[in-house]
Amino acid sequence: MAERRKINPALKSALELGPILAFFIAYIRLREQSFTIAGTQYDGFVLATAGFIPLILLTTGILWALTRHVSKMQIATAVLVVVFGGLTVWLNDERFFKMKPTVIYVLFAGILGAGLLRGRSYLQYVMEEMVPLAREGWMILTRRLAIFFAGLAVLNEVIWRTMSTDMWVNFKTFGLTIAIFGFFMAQGALFRTYGAEQETDD
Predict the structure, then answer these.
(1) Contact 188, 144 (CB under 8 A)
(2) Are 190 and 201 within one domain?
(3) How many folded domains does the chain comprise?
(4) What angle do CA 77, 183, 103 make, to 5 degrees?
(5) CA distance 119 to 27
(6) Which residues, if any, are the signal sequence (predicted)?
(7) Predicted pLDDT at 202
(8) Is residue 76 domain-shared with residue 154, that is, in the same domain?
(9) Residue 184: how many CB atoms within 10 A of its CB?
(10) Within the chain, how many helices (H) and strands (E) appear?
(11) Cα distance between residue 152 and residue 148, in whole Å
(12) Inter-residue contact 80 to 100 (CB < 8 Å)
């Protein structure tokens, strides 16, 4: 197995968040326009999606080349971007790309929930090196995150089905990122309590 390498955190964040911001900028610039390609008319959203697909693959590839590691969540996200983004472009139907976050969060919630039913925290396998917690802390955090992901899936469905495309793009670009950041910030007490317990046990 290749040794995992560390890179500048700012570069890592740019590679992870860059495609999302690029999609947002492309959509803002193209949303009022339509283009005819090979006899088919495409709106700005579909073209922004078409550009997002190779970009997410490129940045994921660069991240792997620099660190020799890509998380399973990142791989799953890239695969679903290709599948649902490809369907959006192929069928010229923006609904498929709007459904992608729902599928991603249902998948994550399902995986975490399956682990909990087996008495395990799959989240611990992914994040243990970054966040040292006692086993009970991992179980609590995993349960909360599974519920959180399920809530995001429901929220995405409500927004894309009942609100404008502009609202959904803003939600996808900023709302989801802020929500995930806020979730982990809100777990400070859990990290302090169960992190301290693990340090004492060690």
Answers:
(1) no
(2) yes
(3) 2
(4) 30
(5) 43
(6) none
(7) 45
(8) no
(9) 13
(10) 9, 2
(11) 6
(12) yes
Take residue 100 and report the two structure tokens written for it: 């992608």
Domain with 107, as residue range(s), is: 94-202
Query: Does residue 124 sit in the same domain as residue 40?
Result: no
Q: What is the pLDDT of residues 134-192, one digit of tens each?
A: 999 999 999 999 999 999 999 999 999 999 999 999 999 999 989 999 999 999 999 99
* Residue 107 structure tokens: 């998948």
How much is the pTM? Answer: 0.84
65 and 129 both lie in a single domain = no
pLDDT tens, position by position, 6-33: 788 888 888 988 999 999 999 999 998 9
Cα gap 96→81, rounded to integer Å: 10
Q: Are residues 166 and 188 in the same domain?
A: yes
- Cβ-in-10-Å burial (0-12, 13-18, 19+) of 200 comes to exposed
Query: On the CB side of 25, how many CA atoms lie within 13 Å of its CA?
Result: 7
Tell me which of 28, 63, 92 is where a domain ends: 92
The amino acid that residue 3 corresponds to is E
Rounded percentage of the chain residues whose pLDDT exceeds 90: 69
